[in-house]
Structures are given as structure tokens and as C-alpha cells.
Amino acid sequence: MGLVKKGKDLWFYEDLYSDTTYGFKVSRVSVPETDTGFQKLMILETDRFGRVLVLDGIVQLTEEDEGIYHEWIAHWPLFALERPARHVLIVGGGDCGVAREVLRHRSIERVTMVEIDRQVCDLCREHMPAVCEGVYEDPRFRLVIGDGAEVIRRMKGACDVVVIDSTDPIGPAKSLFSTDFYQGVYDALVDGGIAIHQTGALILQPFEAPGSWRQIERCFDDVRVVQFANVSYMGGPFSLTAGSKGRAVFRNAERNARRAYPRAGFQTDWYSPRIPALPYPEFQKRLETDKYGEEIVMDVPLAGGFPGARKVGKWALQTCDAIHMKSFGEPIVASPRLGEGETLVQYVETSAISYRRYGRMAALNCFTCAALPMEAAIRFSLAYFKAPRAFCWYLPRGSFADIKTIRKHTKIFECGPGMEGLSKAYRPRLVDSAEVFAPGLPFFHSGIAPQFELVMDIYGCAYERISSPAAVAHWAGGEFPRISGLPTVGKVDAPDFGHAKKKTAGPSVVQLFDGGSNISHYSANWLMIVLNIVAKRDFGLEKAIRQTMDYFKGKYAVCWLLPRGGSAHALKKIANNTFIFTVENR
Ligand code: AG3
Fold it and tell me: For domain 293-584, is the CATH number 3.30.1330.40?
């Protein structure tokens, strides 16, 4: 909304979120919105908060409360160090609030600030002189106008502390929230050094802190979260995520701070060495132990005529009700007739329900990123299709556990409408990937089933790839079909609708094939992909898996191969031909 006239008053409303905002009365516009070439900058004057810096419609600081943010982001790492810092690098921070706080430490010999947007420096200096007080006059301060991500590569082992005082991961700062950048920051630190980054409002931006945590955890030796709240950053608890070079750094952080602070020779208003950072916030703990999702896969014999898209669409929506999930969007469908092998997909709260038919068998998948009431799903489908029985696989998805545990929790069973038979469950055969990839292994031609489904959970993927709907769509709609030779039907669909929950933040994808589909979900916070590929023809399993892992820079994958649409009286045979295996990235 930005600036809004209300009677004779002028108000500003922040443009960060599409569904919630806050505002304040403006007494004067000091700098009207200017396009700097990097972003839109505006400086407003208010009676309550003093001057306010706004970039791309988002409040960056107010004179009234900037001290809270700048003190925490500067003093927390500096006081936590084992040895007093000499060289500090600031990435961003053009208003100089961080530099001002850093320079209060007597041990500091040099502060280098790399800001991409010169106008932020110049206009803040002119219109908010209190924020940068003393900084430009200090001989220890050096300003570099440039891209922090590039400068950092030339600073190997040179910095005691790196403070990344950036805007949010939209606009020019996007590249600063990537694994490559964090790796560069780690390399720029001395042993025992600390880096810290603003990682957003914990409640309103629930995917940001966990996303940065995952990446920092991957590049650094230890991680902490510092929390504070101010007025300017709407939404209560705000987070700073810190990484250390060296395992013991944070263990002594509090002790070091309590010792160093009284000797610093200056006082702070907000920072206190007695407020510790969180070693492992509860949300992060849960991210580690939760399983990501559950999937129930069913092959249900169809008697009589075969349902078209209308009837199957209704099945999908009513399944949502049966398992207490909300549907998202319209069903994606290959054709209204839904002939043999053609797929219908209905998104549900970031996961999906799908249908396809082979011969007389309906191949149904029901995947959710929450607890899945499996019985309700099976019971409903059996009743809907008036089927006497279903052949089922239960798959714990994204479990983080070792393959043996995942196998133990995977179940293959047959059951009738009363759910009898559930107790007689089989497990998939655990095989080596070399065996699976070996030429001649008769997956696709075993006669057990017309199709195989490849189910794959890939762990340790690159954040920037899996959090980007464009990158994901490029893979699913272009790269994968090219490598696998699978003929696509219609366009790739890559919505990003799961951000209400930390777990499901990240895009989803559907690409239909001739006689199959690729349905996948990308979890920015688990750095993980869950995907299901079904195809009518052989597609070179090893190449497809390796290419996918390479594209997303995944470290490790757990895969299941399920024979779909197979014989109606052969559960044992189905179980014998269901395989589970792992693939490491070479
Ligand atoms: N940089 C962090 C601004 C974060 C605003 N985001 C938000 N409210 N979610 C501020 C620059 C101050 N030096």
C-alpha cells in the first residue's frame, strides 16, 4: 500500500506481506520514493518513530528503535568471541548502524562494509545522521560499494566476525540467503570466527529462519539463534542466525560475553550478555525429528466401467474430506476421458492425491505432509470405487532415518472394506543400488505389473534450487523429460502454496507424461525433495536418479520401486517385486 492519504493525514503501510500489514502516520516525506537501480528507497519522517528508512516498501529501520537490532546483531557475535575481534566485515548495512556499534569495540582495527547500493549510504548519511554518527570519520572504517557475495570470495580467513545486515530474501539480497554465499562467509572467517545474518520474523516468515539454519548448519560448525523484538519489524519475535567456524566457539559464548562486557568501556541499551542465544530452538528440534510426510499407495480393482475425470475429481475432493485435508486449486488432468495411464492430480495443502488406471486397476496415491489417517483413506476409496479389496503400500516419507528403519516402517498389505488383512504386512526387499542399476534387472519387464513407480526422497539438496519454483519447473518440465526421454503432456505446473507451515514451505510440481506423471514437493526447510515418477516405458533408472540428484545437488536418496497396477491375486508377488534402496551422491 505504501503511502495513503487519510483525510488530511498521510499514513504509511508496509508492503511485506500480502495478508497483514502495519502502518504509521507520516509527518513529512524526506526522500520521496526513488528507484536506485537496485531497489526503491524512501525516507519518511514521523512524530513517533523519528526518521524511517523504507526499501521496496519494507521498513528497514526507525530512529526510535534501530538500537535494538543494531546492538544485537553487532555485539552478540563480538562479545561471544574467545579473542577480541580486529577485523569485521559487514555485508549490506548501508545505513551504518551496524558499523557504528562495531566501532565501539576498542579492539577493532578495521571494519569493511560492502554495500551494493551507494544511494542507501548517501541518503541515510544525509537524512539520518544520528544512525551513522562517527562512522565516516573513523579511520578504521572502509566502505566498498559492490556485491558482498563477490567481495567475500577474496577475503579467505581474514575476518573475526561477518555481519550480514541485509534486506529480506526478496529483491537484491536474495543471493545472500544461499548455501554458496554462506560457504563463502565461512571461508572468510578466521578459526574461531562468527558470522551472523538477519533471518526474519519467526512467526510471519516461518520459513526463513529454518531455511537459513539448515544452510548455515551445513556450512558452519555450529549454529545459534538470537531472538529479539522491536517495533519496526512487525510480528513479534525476530531472528538472527549465527554460525561459527570451530566447534567450541558457541559453547563458551556466554562466559566470554560476561567477562568481556564489563571491560568494554561502553554501555548498551538493549544488548545484554545475560540473555543467551538459543542453541536449538524448539522449532528446529522438531524439524529434525518429525517425519516429513506419509503416503498411502493403493491399487484398487475396478469393476465394470471406468470412471472419467469428473468422477475421479470427486473422489479426490471427497478423499480430502475423509482425511481432513484442504484441497488446493483445481484438479490437473491429462484428459477428461482419463484413458489408460492418464493421470489426475489434486493438490492438498502442499501435497497431492492422484489417480491413474492400468487395465482394470486404479492406481491411487494419497500423500500428505501431516499425519495421514490411513484407514480412513483406504476405507473411503474402497467404498467410492465399490471395490472388494485394495493392495496397499504405506510409505513414511522424508524420515531422516537410516534405510533399515525406513524399511521397517514401510508396509505392503492387502485389505478389504473392513480393513481386515492389515496385520499381514510385508516389507520391501532391501537391495543395493548397483543391483537396481545393473542392466538386465527385470524391473520394467518382469511381467509383474504394467508400470513401476519410482518414489524418491532426496536429502541435503541445495536451498536455492529447491526453494525456487522457476528452478523446479525448469527441471520437471525440461531437464527431466529430456534426460529420461519421457514424452510430456501439457505444461509443467509449479505452484508455491505451502508457506503457511514451516514443514511444507517450498514449491510443488506436477508434470504429466504420456501414461504417467512426475509429482514432487520441495521442502526448503528440510533441504529435501519427495518425488514420485510413474511412466509407461523404461526410462533409464540410474540416469534419471543421478541426474535429479545432481540438478538439486542432493547428497543422499532413499528410493522405493513399486510395481503398479499388477495382478489382483498376488500380494506376495507384489511384495517380492517392491524394492527399497539408497543412492549416495558420488
Ligand atoms: N535489515 C533487516 C530488515 C528486515 C526487515 N524485514 C522484516 N521486517 N521482516 C535492516 C537494515 C538495518 N541496518
Answer: no
- Considering the segment(s) 2-62 as one domain, its CATH architecture is Roll (2.30)
Rounded to the nearest angstrom, the distance between the alpha carbon of 66 and the centre of ligand 1 is: 10
One-letter amino acid for residue 462 of the chain: A
What's the 228 CA to ligand 1 centre distance in angstroms?
13
CA 463/CA 215 separation, integer angstroms: 7
Is residue 200 lining ligand 1, measured as CB closer than 6 Å?
yes
Atom of ligand 1 nearest to the CA of 93: 13
425 CA to centre of ligand 1 in angstroms: 53
284-296 b/e with 16+ CB inside 10 Å = b?
A: beebeebebbbbb
Asked if residue 165 has its Cβ within 6 Å of ligand 1, the reply is yes
166 Cα nearest atom in ligand 1: 1
User: Could you tell me the distance, in angstroms and rounded to a whole number, from the CA of residue 201 to the centre of ligand 1?
Assistant: 9
Q: How far from 79 is each of 186, 264, 328, CA to CA, in Å?
A: 19, 9, 48
Cell triple for residue 76? 552478540
Q: Ligand 1, from 66, 116, 198, 199: best to mutate by most atoms within 8 Å of Cβ?
A: 198
72 lines ligand 1 (CB under 6 A): no
DSSP string, 289-316: HS--EEEEEEEEEPPSSPP-HHHHHHHH
Closest ligand 1 atom to 232 CA: 8
Whether 101 lines ligand 1, by a CB cut-off of 6 Å, is: no
Which residues lie across from 532 on neighbouring strands? 455, 519
* Cα 229 from chain centroid (whole Å): 24
Residues that are catalytic = 165
What ligand 1 atom has the least distance to the C-alpha of 66? 12
What string of pLDDT tens digits covers the 586 residues of the chain? 899 999 999 999 999 998 999 999 999 999 999 999 999 999 999 999 999 999 999 999 999 999 999 999 999 999 999 999 999 999 999 999 999 999 999 999 999 999 999 999 999 999 999 999 999 999 999 999 999 999 999 999 999 999 999 999 887 888 888 888 999 999 999 999 999 999 999 888 877 888 888 889 889 999 999 999 999 999 999 999 999 999 999 999 999 999 999 999 999 999 999 988 887 667 666 666 666 889 999 999 998 789 999 999 999 999 999 988 889 999 999 999 999 999 999 999 878 999 999 999 999 999 987 778 888 899 999 999 999 889 999 999 988 778 998 999 999 999 887 776 666 889 999 999 988 888 766 565 566 777 889 999 999 898 889 989 999 999 999 999 999 999 999 999 988 877 667 677 889 999 999 989 999 999 887 889 999 999 888 888 999 999 999 999 998 999 999 999 886 668 888 998 899 999 998 7
Task: Give the closest residue (by CA) to ligand 1 atom 2.
Answer: 167
What pTM does this model have?
A: 0.73
The Å distance, Cα 462 to ligand 1 centre, comes to 25
Strand residue runs (E) in 188-249: 189-201, 222-228, 238-244
448 lines ligand 1 (CB under 6 A): no
If phi > 0 it is left, if psi is from -120 to 50 it is alpha, else beta; for residue 117 that is: beta
- Positions of CATH 2.30.140.10 in the chain: 2-62
Asked if CATH classification 3.40.50.150 holds for the domain at 66-288, the reply, yes or no, is yes
